[in-house]
UniProtKB/TrEMBL annotation:
SMART domains: PKS_KR (SM00822). This is 3-oxoacyl-[acyl-carrier protein] reductase. NCBIfam families: PRK07231.1, PRK12826.1-2. It comes from Serinicoccus hydrothermalis. PROSITE patterns: ADH_SHORT. Residues 9-191 form the Ketoreductase domain.
Length: 252
C-alpha cells in the first residue's frame, strides 16, 4: 500500500464529532495521520474515533470545550501524552447563536466569541510551542463567508470569523521562521449547522442562488482542501484564506 499524504503526522481536529470536522478527521486518518478527534460531545467524538479505527485508521477521542482555556490545555496535554507530538491543528469547532443586533444578548455574543475566537486562540497557543521546537507545523483555522462579506442576524459569528482572519495573518507572520504555516478556510457544506438555510422555505432558494455552482458540498469535498493545506507540499502557502464555497465569495 502506498504511503498516505499525512503518513505518521499527528493531527488535532476540533469539532470533529460531526459535520466538516468529522469529514476532515476521516480524510486525514485515511491519509495515514493519527487523529485526535476533539469535541465537546463525548459520545460523538468517541463514535467518530471508533469508526476511523474500525476502518483501519488511527484515532483517539478527546473531550474538550474549546471555549475554556483549562479544558484546551488539558486536552492538548492528553494528545501529546497519547500521540507524542502535534503536527497539524485544524481549529474547526463552532456554534451559532443567531439574533438581530438589537436583540442579541451578552450571553449570545460571548458564547460565539468564546467558542470561535477563544477556542482557536487557546489551541493556537497550546500547539505553537511544540511546533516551534520541531520547526514544523500546519495550522488551519475555520472562518466563514460571514466574516468576509458580513451576514444578517449573526453579528457575533461574523465578528468572530473576521477576527480569525486577523489571527491567521498575525500567527502566520509570527510562526513563519519556524516553518509553520497558518491558513484559514471559509467553507460551505451540508452539515447540521446549515440545516435551516438549506431546508427552510424562507431561506433555501435565495441562499442556493448565491452559490455560483448552485449546490451544497458534502463535508468530504470540503475536507479535500483541508488536506492540501495540511500536507508538506503546501509549505509555501501561508497567511491565506481559501473560500471553499462553490464560488460564493470571489473577490475581497
Ligand atoms: N457548514 C458550513 O457551511 C459552514 C460555513 C461557514 C463556516 N463553517 C464553520 O465550519 C466549522 C464546522 O461547521 P459545521 O457545519 O461542521 O458545524 P456542526 O455544527 O455540524 O459541527 C460543529 C461541531 O463542533 C462541536 N463543538 C461546538 N462547540 C464546541 C466547543 N465549545 N468545544 C468543542 N467542540 C464544540 C459540536 O459538538 C459539533 O460536533 C464551524 O467553525 C463553522 O462555523 C461552516
Amino acid at each position: 500500500m502506498s504511503e498516505g499524504k499525512l503518513q505518521d503526522r499527528v493531527a488535532v481536529v476540533t469539532g470533529a464529532g460531526q459535520g466538516i470536522g468529522e469529514g476532515v478527521a476521516r480524510l486525514y486518518a485515511a491519509e495515514g495521520a493519527q487523529v485526535a478527534v476533539v469535541d465537546i460531545n463525548q459520545e460523538a467524538a468517541q463514535a467518530v474515533a471508533d469508526s476511523i479505527v474500525a476502518d483501519g485508521g488511527q484515532a483517539v477521542a478527546v473531550v474538550c470545550d474549546v471555549g475554556n482555556r483549562a479544558s484546551v490545555d488539558e486536552a492538548a496535554a492528553t494528545v501529546v501524552e497519547q500521540l507524542g507530538v502535534i503536527d497539524i491543528l485544524v481549529s474547526n469547532a463552532g456554534v451559532t447563536r443567531p439574533a438581530m443586533l438589537w436583540k442579541m444578548t451578552d450571553d449570545e455574543w460571548n458564547m460565539v466569541l468564546d467558542t470561535h475566537l477563544g477556542g482557536s486562540f487557546y489551541w493556537l497557543q497550546a500547539v505553537a510551542g511544540g511546533m516551534r521546537e520541531q520547526k514544523y507545523g500546519r495550522i488551519i483555522f475555520t472562518t466563514s463567508a460571514a466574516g468576509i462579506i458580513g451576514t444578517i442576524g449573526q453579528i457575533n459569528y461574523s465578528v468572530a470569523k473576521a477576527g480569525l482572519l486577523g489571527m491567521t495573518r498575525s500567527a502566520a507572520r509570527e510562526l513563519a521562521d519556524s516553518k509553520i504555516t497558518v491558513n484559514a478556510i471559509a467553507p460551505a457544506a451540508s452539515t447540521p449547522m446549515t440545516e435551516v438555510i438549506r431546508t427552510d422555505e424562507r431561506f433555501k432558494d435565495t441562499y442556493l442562488q448565491s452559490i455560483p455552482l448552485k449546490r451544497w458540498a458534502e463535508p468530504d469535498e470540503v475536507a479535500a482542501s483541508y488536506l492540501f493545506l495540511a500536507t508538506e507540499e503546501a509549505g509555501y502557502l501561508t497567511g491565506q484564506c481559501l473560500s471553499v464555497d462553490g464560488g460564493r465569495v470571489m473577490v475581497r
